[in-house]
């Protein structure tokens, strides 16, 4: 959803930034400045993105040059890409709306002009070369005098073969006479069976075929030797020239790597600006506090599928205030979407991107830990619950006060009593006894846990609003303070298509159970 980059280099850089977000505020702000620059320079951004579509994967081509396995088409694509660099630089520098930030200036400085490399490639390689160089047909006429001379011998020899074929047809009267070639027998004169009586006595028979006979002549054998040697020499010399070309280009590898890096930075900055402007994202404020404050936060992926109907929500997590949010309530109400949106906003902010919110102030996080969904590894004898506990152990053993923890339905894989006990113990551990612990979003259906709010001072209950009528349940997707004890599981089962008899019976059992649990 975020990858609107135009080049493979940009796509890889964006992936790296999102996979390993920054923790240095200055580094993050440099990237945010670059995004803001391209938001302010819309015409230049659009022109730049059009130019970037003409750039090949310079990073990969450079690696192939380094290993010596770059193909002719790689080099032509490289030359075409290098030729766009002056236009790319001029396009970015044309923006006079705001000052060019340092991150963009550095990227522009990486776009080294390499006219010698462009000229070398274009003067050495034909315009439409084959995929691989070893079969020849790669080197442009005029690049090598020696190669041109050998090709001249080769072409004149083949012209001689055509002239010989015409001469022999006239002298023998065999209009179907053909001079062919294969690697085993070389050049031969092919005569069909109906014309064998016309074959001159000086023809030397070489092979019998199903359709006739094949012959040769001394002068044909002599010319064959000349052509074969020339053909072999052409291939060998082309390979030699092409290998030498790649060797020369290796000298430019540091410059090519810098160019790939500069293009990637421009591409990512322009792509994130495009998204920020078209999707109404805001610049996040990064700081060293222990707080995450988000106003009207949205899920960057889910909102794209809802065509403007996404319901935004606020978040206020602080290590010394609301450190842990217990989120209870209905299935399908939006708990998982909300928690993931908070995590994604934090990741995007620390990756140097604008975020889907009206306001976002993010205290730098060291890591984000998640335990969401059900997984198992049956081949290794690990149940769903055991895998859940393994992941939970990793979180609890590595979490710090600078971390964000997202836990969804901890303890649901075992009995209710065990699961609820584990969930409560985890809550107490994350809350800590004295100083602030990690900021935590804790979604659960163990409604007994809402009582923790009265015991642990930095825990607060929240739930998603539901509008319930006699015949319908409407999920409002709005997070509000307080707890709820309703999950609406039977309603969700009905929406999923569970047979009516089952859902009606489930409702009856639920009513009986609740009546039994109510003290008389």
Q: If you had to describe this structure to a student in words, what would you say it looks like?
A:
- The protein is an alpha/beta fold and 520 residues long.
- It is 48% helix and 16% strand.
- The chain contains 17 helices and 14 strands.
- It has helices spanning 8-19, 25-40, 42-52, 58-67, 72-83, 85-93, 102-110, 115-124, 145-172, 218-250, 253-278, 302-305, 335-350, 384-398, 416-431, 489-495, 500-517; strands spanning 178-182, 186-192, 204-208, 212-216, 285-287, 291-297, 313-318, 324-328, 359-363, 368-371, 404-408, 439-443, 459-468, 473-481.
- A six-stranded mixed sheet has the order 10-11-12-8-13-14, sandwiched between helices. A four-stranded antiparallel sheet has the order 1-2-4-3.
- Strand 1 (178-182) and strand 2 form a beta hairpin.
- Helix 2 (25-40) packs across helix 11 (253-278) and helix 9 packs antiparallel against helix 10.
- The longest helix is centred in the middle third of the chain and has 33 residues, at 218-250.
- The chain starts with 7 loop residues before the first helix and ends with a helix.
- The mean pLDDT is 89.
